[in-house]
Amino acid sequence: MSYFESSSEFFKIFGIDENSDYKTFLRLDDIKVGFSIQREYPKDGRYKPPTLKDGTPDVIAIIHVAYNQEGAHPKIEITDERVPIRITVTWGSKWLANHVSYDFENKECPTKESIDISNKTPSPYHSSVEGYFDHKQNKFILGTGENLEPKGLLDSVFENNLKAPSYLFILRRKSKNTVRDLNRILIKIARYFLELIWNWQIEDRISARNYLTGYLESEVIKQPRKELDLFGYKTSTETIVGFCCLIIITFLACHLLGGSSPLLKSVLNNGFLTSICVLVALYIFDKVVPRLLLELINILIRFRTEWL
Fold first, then answer.
1. Cβ-count burial 47-60 (b if 16+ within 10 Å, e if not)
2. Would you list the domain boundaries of the chain?
3. Would you say the C-alpha torsion 204, 206, 210, 211 has a positive or negative sign?
4. Chain segment 138-179, per-residue pLDDT in tens
5. What band does 298 get if pLDDT is binned at 50, 70 and 90?
6. DSSP string of 41-97, one letter each residue
7. Separation between Cα atoms, residue 72 and residue 129, nearest integer Å
8. Phi, psi for 234 (deg, rounded to 5)
9. Which of 4, 140, 145, 206 is the most buried (most CB within 10 A)?
10. Per the confidence metrics, is the pTM higher than 0.70?
11. Is 134 helix (H, G, I), strand (E, B) or coil?
């Protein structure tokens, strides 16, 4: 039995050419075999995506196909003929993927009028399907029972993405608007502090994997900056200033709340212990906290993908 060993080989079975409605093939670098593909929503459909001044749609459908995805469909085991797959379909704004809010003066931003029109139409919704690829039949068998040819798989998930939601679904979607905005702001704040304090810069890019699951640390640009020496520990000026600000805020909070600890007093009265504690805390602040912030960003992105 011959399995797919690369994303390009897997993609070929779908028979997509330059005249197809599906565009922008991207390999997924977080799994061995998988890809994403994009498709514009039909102009005569019920959903009207926001558009730029020249009519270019800002919102597109993003289909994410993973082959031999670990954890896909727990009731289906890998056999000689059947390999698990997972298909995720979502919609994404090219503008909001890289910006926290709209800027209607920018020509790359969708117009306010088109956004108002789009908001009055039934929006697509995120969904995912699991199943397996049968190498003997050369077909996809989904958990829903559907038996589809490779090209039919993409068409099926795209059409399901366009189905008109129920009234209850519309109410739930509207209730999520505030959560979605908060999610976007939290990501923006986390990215801001990563760059301000630790010099970690996340590049803005239109990548399906980044949009759906987040960023790898290897994708972060760590800008070199001037270093200072604090008790023999060298790190950037911004990191030390941020650490000092954290200590001041913690001290003020303890003072205002009237907190007092005998252990803390004994440590502060011992210069050697104080130095050791400061160095350990600075190391954690310098090495661990930025990675936790990056993971927080990824959790927020995955939460947005799965629930918003």
1. bbbbbbeeeebbbb
2. 7-166, 183-307
3. positive
4. 888 887 677 888 878 888 888 877 765 555 555 666 676 778
5. very high
6. PPTTSS----B-TTS-BSEEEEEEEEES-TTS-TT----SSEEEEEEEEEEEETTTT
7. 9
8. -100, 130
9. 140
10. no
11. strand
